Amino acid sequence: MRVWAVLATALAAVCAGQSFSALQQLGKADRDGVVQLELEQFMAHVVPETKDYAVVVQLTALSAQYKCDTCHAIDKSLRAVSRGWRRQRASRRIAFATLDVDNGEELFRKMGIDKIPRLMIFPAGRGAEAMADASPREMKLGAKNSHPAGMAARLSELFGTEIRADEPIDYMRYVVGAVGVLAAAFVGRLAWRRVSASVVGRNVWAVTSITFVLVMTSGLMWNRINAPPFMGQTRTGDAVLFAPTNSQQYGVETQIVATAYAVCALCVVLLVRHVPRVPSGEQRALMALMVVAVLLLAHSYVNSVFRMKMPGYPFRLLLP
Hints:
Layout: H1 2-28, E1 35-36, H2 39-45, E2 54-60, H3 69-88, E3 94-100, H4 101-111, E4 118-122, E5 137-139, H5 148-159, H6 171-194, H7 202-217, H8 220-226, E6 232-233, E7 239-240, H9 251-274, H10 281-309
Parallel strand pairs: 1-3, 2-3
Antiparallel strand pairs: 2-4, 4-5, 6-7
């Protein structure tokens, strides 16, 4: 019996080695080393808990027909991590792979997966890479780990080894930024010569201050730091304007919130600066009521968005 146990262990090790070698060969067909899995390959090389290697798999929908911007953003991050891991030439047996809905639709349906992309970790069940719990687990994709550096940092924590992302330098971004700064400086210099000192006064500084406050409170800096997708998308292709949690947001969400804040600010300015100057008392009262009504609606909309992202928030104004 002991001999059979040893032979079974040796055979399992050989099969696992062949599986990891097969994944490596499949990864060579991809420029970033990400294995493009068919369903049969996924079941054979990824699912078994007796394997002595780990696999990071993104469940995604990259075909143009699905129009999933988030899927492409996560795919870009995973590819950067895979490139970095391949260049590290580490001895750890970790593979990166993709299972697209076109290849695994039956599996997605059986698992009840209705929202993608998802990043799944399939740990090794034995060997040097073994974890105490070899069952698959999902790595939640949030604002901190959706970009390459954040994803690499989170995977480093999970596997207990350093994983670095290989992000190519976007030289065009710096060129465009430099050209934009120079153009703005040139235009500003020309405009300054033609603007009288009386105009550059309280009004200009007021508009500048309000604009700065609106931009900052709308979440622009968060977007610049975390680089979220412009909007989300359901599996059926419907657009999602607001991220479902308070720890994440989309680019279009920032624009919507900034617009609502701008309407509120404009209403306050009208009430303070322009409504009191209306000569007729009746017209002044009517205009004040109209502006206050718009202010209440705009603020109620902002409050409604906040309640949607924070379900436990108890207060509301007009809108649900």
